[in-house]
Write a structure and sequence with these properties.
The complex is a heterodimer of chains A (140) and B (77). With 140 residues, chain A is mainly β. Chain A is 7% helix and 46% strand. In chain A, β4 (24-31) and β5 form a beta hairpin. Chain A is globular. The two termini of chain A are 13 Å apart. With 77 residues, chain B is mainly alpha-helical. Chain B contains three helices and no strands. Chain B has helices spanning 4-17, 21-38, 58-69. Classes of the chains: A mainly beta (140), B mainly alpha (77).
């Protein structure tokens, strides 16, 4: 098993039709019986992982069942969010449990933030070479 | 001796000088956009960009850390 999962930056087009490249990480989310292949944005500025409304629903999560309400900041501050634990598989690494702030917003990307993606994985970004490396914590 | 590009710029100047004020501002905006594109910068003047990052959501972070330590508290009942 490789210790490093190397991912090229992805070409993206924003809402103004402008193009750019972003560090998007492909991963598989598993929640109970459901599984979903997604692409999530690495966001070192985000205190928490963020899961958009529709992705939570696709995973089969039930809003009313989630007991912990969260207060987010920025553009998400006016919308409700609740805590959701989801298993995530990245590359060939063993699955880890990610804690998401599941927001009622749908026009937000999946964000991987400090709690707890960056606590589980060490990431090195090589923007000048348009790729980034991901490795589970504690691996050299 | 002026290069071809410099000559073109010299020819442009009198044309630009004759523009109305609002047209000059449009030219400035156009050039700023062109520079941004060339430098792969995804920011354009006068455009609005959403910032989704929950930058200072310390309480939410604490709540998620507590949940990871006590996953049985995730759901009702």
């Amino acid at each position: 098993m490789d210790n490093v999962f190397r991912v090229p930056f992805s070409n993206v087009v924003n809402h103004l039709g402008e193009t750019g490249i972003l560090p998007l990480l492909p991963l598989q989310l598993n929640y109970r019986e459901k599984s979903l292949e997604v692409s999530a944005r690495l966001d070192t500025g985000a205190m928490v992982n963020v899961l958009p409304w529709s992705v939570g629903l696709e995973l089969g999560a039930v809003w009313e069942n989630q007991a912990i309400s969260l207060k987010l900041s920025g553009n998400l501050s006016n919308l409700e969010a609740r805590a959701l634990l989801v298993a995530a598989s990245i590359g060939d690494f063993p699955p880890v449990q990610l804690a998401f702030a599941w927001t009622k917003a749908d026009n937000v990307p999946i964000l991987l933030g400090m709690t707890n993606f960056f606590m589980e994985f060490d990431v090195c970004v090589f923007r000048s070479q348009s790729f980034f490396d991901v490795r589970p914590k504690g691996r050299q | 001796m002026l290069s071809a590009q410099s000559k073109e710029m010299e020819q442009l100047k009198p044309v630009l000088q004759q523009l109305e004020r609002h047209e000059k501002l449009l030219v400035i905006q156009f050039l700023a956009t062109e520079l941004a594109r060339q430098e792969e910068v995804l920011l354009v003047p006068n455009a609005s960009y959403p910032v989704w990052s929950p930058l200072e959501a310390y309480g939410a972070s604490d709540a998620l850390l507590n949940l990871l330590a006590n996953p049985q508290t995730e759901t009702n009942g």
